[in-house]
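ok, trying the design again with the full structure, not the truncated one.
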C-alpha cells in the first residue's frame, strides 16, 4: 500500500491560516462567552463564520454542489485537528459542528430534493439548527437495536411515541432527526427508521437540558431530554428507506468518528501546551518541574501517545478515502477508544503538573477534563468498540489443529527434523559417582 506523509503546499497554507485564526479570533471569543448576552455573542460569531466562508473553508465535509469544499477524509481530519482545539465554538465557526455536520451529510446522501430544500440548505447556511435524537435512557444507550420509541404510519402521517435523552442541542434545534422503531417484527438491524421532526410539531415536548459532568456551553446548547407524545409528521418526512435507520446511522458515524478523534487530538495538544509551559515556569523542590524525572516521563508519554493517535486516525481516514467506510470499520473503532483514552490521559497529566491552578476554572483544563470523560461514552461506549476490534481481528485467525499453539517449540522442532531428514541426537550419558 502506498503511503505519503507529505501535505500539499496549498493545504498546509490553509491549515496555517486556520491555526492563526483559531488563536487570534476564536480563542478570545471563548473567554467572553459568560460576559456577553446571546445576541451580542452570536453577532461576533457570525462575523467569524463570514470570514471562514470568504476563506473557502466553510462546511468542508460536503461536496461543492452542496455548499461545501469536497475535501477527502485526510484533509478533513487535519482541519478538524485545528478546529477541535476549541471544545464548542471552533467547529461552529467553521460550520462543521456536531450534530449539524452529520445531519447535513445524512440529508445530502439520503434526503429527497424537498427535504434538502427545506432542511439541508438552511442548515448549511447556519440559518437553522438540528439535533440527532437516538439515545434512550431506559433501553437503548450504545445499542440502537434496543430502541423503544415507535412510529406508526396512520394514513399519510407518522405518529411517534416515546422518550429520548442526550439529544444534543435538542433545546435549540429547529428540527430533529429521530431514529425510531417503525417495523418492530423485523430483524434487529432493520426495525428502525429515521424521521425528520420539526420542533414545533404538536405533541413534541422538549423537557430540559440534562445536567452532567460536561461544562454547559450556554445559550441553550447541551444534551436534551425530549418526549414524543403522539407527535404527527407527514409520511414524506421519512429519511431514506423504511427500516434503514441502522445503516444510515453507520454511514453517518463512520467519517464522523474521524472528525471526533482529530478534534480530541486538538484538545490534547492544547492541554499539552499548557503542561509544558507550566513545567518550564514552576519551581519546586530545588528546580523547575521540567527537570523532574516524573514530569519528563509524562511529557514523553504524552507526545508518543498523541502521535500514535494521530497516525492511527489519519490511516483510518486514508482507508476511508480509498476503500470506503465499511472497509475501515476496524480502524474506526480502534481510533475511537484510543483517541478518547489519549485525550483523557494527557489532560489528566496537565492538571497534575499545573496543580491547583489547573484544577481551578482559571485554566480551561477542568472543562477539557470533563469533556474528555464524556468522549468514552459518546458515539458508542469504548467497551463496544473494543469488542468490535477484537471480533474483527479474531476473524483473521484460526484455532490450531493440534493441542498446542502453532508456535509450540517441541512440536515445531520435531516437524523441522522430519523436514530436513535429521535424526535426533542421542542423549548424553552422565556417569554417576567417582
Amino acid at each position: 500500500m502506498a503511503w505519503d506523509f507529505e501535505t500539499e503546499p496549498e493545504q498546509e497554507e490553509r491549515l496555517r491560516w486556520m491555526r492563526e485564526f483559531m488563536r487570534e479570533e476564536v480563542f478570545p471569543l471563548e473567554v467572553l462567552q459568560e460576559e456577553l448576552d446571546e445576541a451580542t455573542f452570536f453577532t461576533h460569531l457570525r462575523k467569524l463564520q463570514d470570514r471562514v466562508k470568504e476563506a473557502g473553508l466553510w462546511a468542508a465535509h460536503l461536496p461543492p454542489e452542496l455548499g461545501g469544499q469536497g475535501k477527502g477524509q485526510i484533509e478533513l481530519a487535519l482541519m478538524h485537528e485545528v478546529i477541535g482545539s476549541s471544545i464548542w465554538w471552533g467547529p461552529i465557526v467553521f460550520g462543521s459542528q456536531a450534530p449539524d455536520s452529520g445531519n447535513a451529510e445524512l440529508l445530502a446522501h439520503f434526503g429527497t430534493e424537498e427535504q434538502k430544500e427545506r432542511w439541508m440548505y438552511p442548515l448549511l447556511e447556519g440559518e437553522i439548527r438540528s439535533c440527532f435524537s437516538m439515545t434512550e435512557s431506559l433501553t437503548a444507550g450504545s445499542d440502537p437495536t434496543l430502541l423503544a420509541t415507535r412510529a406508526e404510519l396512520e394514513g399519510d402521517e407518522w405518529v411517534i411515541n416515546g422518550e429520548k435523552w442526550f439529544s444534543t442541542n435538542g433545546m435549540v434545534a429547529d428540527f430533529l432527526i429521530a431514529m425510531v422503531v417503525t417495523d418492530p417484527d423485523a430483524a434487529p438491524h432493520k426495525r428502525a427508521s429515521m424521521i425528520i421532526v420539526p420542533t414545533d410539531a404538536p405533541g413534541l415536548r422538549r423537557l430540559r437540558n440534562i445536567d452532567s459532568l460536561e461544562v454547559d456551553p450556554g445559550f441553550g446548547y447541551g444534551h436534551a431530554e425530549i418526549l414524543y407524545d403522539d407527535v404527527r409528521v407527514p409520511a414524506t418526512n421519512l429519511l431514506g428507506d423504511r427500516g434503514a435507520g441502522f445503516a444510515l446511522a453507520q454511514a453517518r458515524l463512520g467519517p464522523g468518528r474521524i472528525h471526533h478523534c482529530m478534534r480530541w487530538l486538538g484538545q490534547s495538544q492544547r492541554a499539552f501546551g499548557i503542561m509544558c509551559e507550566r513545567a518550564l515556569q514552576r519551581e519546586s523542590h530545588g528546580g523547575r518541574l521540567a527537570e523532574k524525572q516524573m514530569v519528563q516521563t509524562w511529557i514523553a508519554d504524552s507526545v508518543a501517545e498523541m502521535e500514535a493517535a494521530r497516525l492511527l486516525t489519519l490511516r483510518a481516514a486514508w482507508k476511508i478515502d480509498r476503500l470506503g467506510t465499511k472497509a475501515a470499520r476496524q480502524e474506526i473503532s480502534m481510533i475511537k477508544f484510543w483517541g478518547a483514552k489519549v485525550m483523557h490521559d494527557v489532560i489528566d497529566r496537565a492538571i497534575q503538573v499545573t496543580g491547583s491552578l489547573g484544577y481551578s476554572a482559571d485554566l480551561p483544563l477542568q472543562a477539557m477534563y470533563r469533556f474528555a470523560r464524556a468522549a468514552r461514552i459518546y458515539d458508542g461506549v469504548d467497551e463496544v468498540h473494543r469488542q468490535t476490534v477484537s471480533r474483527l481481528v479474531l476473524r483473521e485467525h484460526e484455532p490450531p489443529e493440534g493441542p498446542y499453539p502453532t508456535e509450540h517449540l517441541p512440536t515445531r522442532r520435531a516437524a523441522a527434523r522430519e523436514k530436513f531428514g535429521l535424526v535426533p541426537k542421542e542423549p548424553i550419558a552422565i556417569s554417576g559417582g567417582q
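Keeping the full-length input from now on. Residues 245-281 form the longest helix (37 residues).
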